[in-house]
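User: quick one, sequence for these tokens?
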């Protein structure tokens, strides 16, 4: 059995997360028992939700335990099998965590899912055709539920969720306006992802009224639906431009992951506009995954969805790549290549 390099959560952040919160170790891989498989991870997914799990605080899921392998989605290949459900060479996606190998009880429901070899790149099963893509699908289709001709917006527009959201919304005949950080990301969103307009929030220096003015220009008919990944002052600006009966799908509040409160400037707008604001966790809606993955796979295979990826090399690069993602340094889906 191979040795296995792993990244553990060594201590909890005090404010902003740092590389010193993590620890790289090398551990022996245990011998397989009946019903188990050994997965060699090709790619590791780095996602904003992981920052919330690092805190020891009440949330929708248990905190990441100290001294254990960091949680994370992985895609890879079965290299040994003592299960009749999987053969050596099968490609699988799962939650193998920040490590090079994982031993998985193949009989446990939901632990692994086979993915086909074909036109969809293997890495896409951690992005556009994986959890981020399904997140965009659920928020758009099941909460916002837009009609053709309506205007929908999304924060973190150039990322894994935002890019899938744009393709899904354009397929439904919507005007799609993104918010992203920096002119390069906005140019990519407009020229490659199909956004009608993308607004650079950094050009507005945390001025809610200034960003709201830019949104008014980009959304002359107002905002009918919004997908929120960030929170804070950007959400305040969006709410100033929402129409009556607008819907907000609340997926992430990355602006508050370091522990600071995120007060809302104009909560009365929820009542004035009879707004629907709904938070969701995509893993609680597994019934939508088959339909979502089918549509997303078709969009990627056809070239209608062309998401970018930021790829760090080697397990030792995971902490700095993760911290960079939290600061917006990534361009598209952040991955770590492990082979």
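Assistant:
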């Amino acid at each position: 059995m191979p040795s296995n390099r792993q990244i553990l959560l060594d201590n909890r952040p005090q404010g902003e997360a740092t590389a010193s919160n993590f620890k790289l170790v090398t551990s022996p891989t245990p011998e397989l028992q009946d019903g188990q498989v050994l997965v060699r991870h090709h790619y590791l997914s780095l996602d904003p939700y992981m920052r919330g799990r690092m805190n020891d605080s009440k949330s929708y899921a248990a905190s990441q335990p100290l001294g254990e392998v960091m949680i994370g989605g992985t895609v890879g290949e079965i290299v040994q099998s003592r299960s009749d459900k999987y053969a050596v060479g099968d490609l699988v996606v799962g939650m193998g965590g920040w490590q090079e190998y994982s031993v998985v009880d193949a009989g446990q429901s939901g632990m692994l899912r086979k993915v086909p070899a074909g036109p969809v790149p293997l890495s896409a099963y951690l992005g556009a055709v994986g959890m981020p893509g399904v997140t965009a699908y659920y928020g758009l289709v099941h909460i916002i539920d837009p009609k053709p001709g309506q205007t929908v917006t999304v924060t973190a527009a150039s990322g894994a969720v935002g890019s899938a959201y744009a393709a899904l919304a354009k397929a439904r005949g919507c005007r799609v306006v993104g918010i992203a950080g920096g002119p390069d990301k906005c140019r990519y969103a407009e020229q490659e992802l199909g956004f009608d307009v993308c607004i650079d929030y950094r050009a507005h220096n945390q001025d809610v009224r200034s960003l709201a003015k830019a949104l008014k220009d980009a959304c002359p008919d107002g905002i009918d639906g919004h997908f929120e990944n960030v929170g804070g002052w950007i959400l305040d600006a969006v709410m100033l431009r929402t129409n009556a009966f607008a819907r907000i799908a609340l997926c992430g509040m990355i602006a508050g992951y370091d522990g600071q409160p995120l007060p809302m400037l104009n909560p009365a707008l929820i009542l004035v506009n009879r707004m629907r604001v709904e938070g969701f966790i995509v893993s609680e809606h597994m019934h939508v995954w088959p339909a979502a993955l089918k549509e997303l796979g078709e969009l990627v295979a056809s070239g209608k969805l062309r998401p970018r990826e930021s790829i760090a090399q080697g397990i030792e690069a995971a902490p700095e790549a993760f911290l960079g993602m939290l600061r917006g340094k990534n361009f598209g889906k952040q991955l770590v290549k492990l082979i």
